[in-house]
Specification:
The complex is a heterodimer. Chain A is an alpha+beta fold. Chain A has 4 domains: 42 residues, no CATH class; 58 residues, no CATH class; 133 residues, Sandwich (Jelly Rolls), CATH 2.60.120.1440; 71 residues, Phage tail protein beta-alpha-beta fold. Chain A is built from 9 helices and 16 strands. In chain A, the strands form 3 sheets. In chain A, strands 1, 2, 3, 4, 5, 6, 7, 8, 9, 10 and 11 form an 11-stranded mixed beta sheet that branches. In chain A, strand 8 and strand 9 form a beta hairpin. Chain A is globular, with a radius of gyration of 27 Å. About 11% of the residues of chain A have low confidence. Chain B is mainly α. Chain B has 2 domains: 83 residues, no CATH class; 72 residues, Arc Repressor Mutant, subunit A, CATH 1.10.10. Chain B contains 8 helices and no strands. The relative contact order of chain B is 0.12. The two termini of chain B are 25 Å apart. Classes of the chains: A alpha+beta, B mainly alpha. Chains A and B meet through helix 1, helix 2, helix 3, helix 4 and strand 1 of A and helix 1, helix 2, helix 4, helix 5 and helix 8 of B.
Chain lengths: 340, 196
Amino acid sequence: MAEGIEESDLLRFVEGDCSPDEAAAIQAWIAADPRRGELLDELRAVWRLTGSTTRPWVVAEARIRLLRSRGRHAAQGSAGFSARPRLLRLARSGLGPIRIAAAIACVVAGTVLWRLRPHSAAFREYATPPGQRLQLTLPDSSRVLLSVGTRLRVPRDFAVSERSVELDGEAYFVVRHDPRRPFLVRTRQGVTEDLGTSFDVRAYPQEHFVQVVVAAGRVALRGGRGGDSVLSLRSRDRGVIDARGVLSATSGVSLGDYLAWTRGTLVFRYARLGDVVAQLGRWYDVDIEISGASGTAERLTISFATRSVDEALTTLAQVLDARWTRSGRMVRLTPLHRRQ
Amino acid sequence: MLDSHFRSSQPTRQRRLPPATPHSWESAFQAYYVELCEYVLRFVGSAEAAQDLVQDLFLRLWDSRGPRDVTRLTRPYLYVAARNRALKYLRHRRVVTTWIARAACEDTPPSDTPEDLCLCAELDDVVQRAIAQLPARCRAVFMLRRREQLSYREIATRLGVSLGTVKSQMWRATLRLRAKLGPYLARPAIPEGRAG
């Protein structure tokens, strides 16, 4: 049994402030008595309720360390891994000034290389390829779910004075409201300003419009041209900025339809076949070609809940009365009867 | 309500997995690094060790095996890999077996769903009230630590008190919150924040 450990030391353990050796001692102390384990669980629960992380993890620093070790490793083409812990161990065990000097030189060189990188970027960019979604938490603990084929750029100084992100594609935002630092989603054609909410922004470059659907709370949508026109949207409102920069709004839309993608389902209501096909292409990472492509302006109502591209294609083909063939990413739909 | 928007975040494809690119590696790192550190910290109790383990994991994914396919960069895979590494680390350091057995029961925290987030907002009121009811000095210490994430030393300097006082106030604050929030602590529906 470790000497001198008290209940209050559990806090240091929860926060991760122990050295590995201290942690081992405290672990033994906790394990010796189930009541200490219960107390630990409750302290962790208090921590979870009162903050988004238990401690300030420095992601930027970790990333630089990683890129450095990765870069060095790639340069050497050798089989080692994790250069940083090794360097540290070297330095700690004091194995002679030369090796330490070499290690420091490496680090300095790494730093210089890092600084010289063309993109010491002012942005962090998150991107999903077709067929993939990504959920992330921003530094202000707002959450974002990126849909397929989407790019989100987050400035390095995000949340310092304002919270502003750039979006190409579609994403669902659950924003932590902070009246002092408005949350802005910039898209090609306009800016969406959160006034305390959850909302979906869709701005695929190929579609030439921006669509904002509000699930809860309020949102202000500003047009890109001149930026003077503002639309105030509430829950179940859908705001659109069209290709010419004109704003319009619809009330009482079905959230289920517009947000279905966040649950892995695609829902289309009276949508143009061309749009359906484009979105299916992103969602399942395929290229769909309709031979005798006459009817891409045709409207259809259809939904896809499957993960399998083949099942989705079969559904679509049934509705269109067509046949489909697929080789790899390439899909061809052939109408069975000539449609106009 | 808004159903489970954030559930099943890895959709749609079983057939052809694209190779991971530097881009997907970077995205995965940015998205999961903190979550994984939090998770591994539960096993090891030392942030230093947790960071090293998670960093090693990412480096391994990139380096020795190369960025082969994107499944290795998905949340479920990363959690399993991180957990295995953490358990291996504990065995290697000969941490007491009862602790390892306890740690082995750590579940992967679920991704939050909007319902959770909504619940979270309700809960947030309760938590804010509980914090507001703390004695003034206790509250000041707690807020500087949890909200502004200052170190104990910085808090001592800021408030002009001793390091010992900061620690004891922090402990008192935590115990009081534990008493106040008791009914909420064990509820399984409580969102895990960032994978707490």
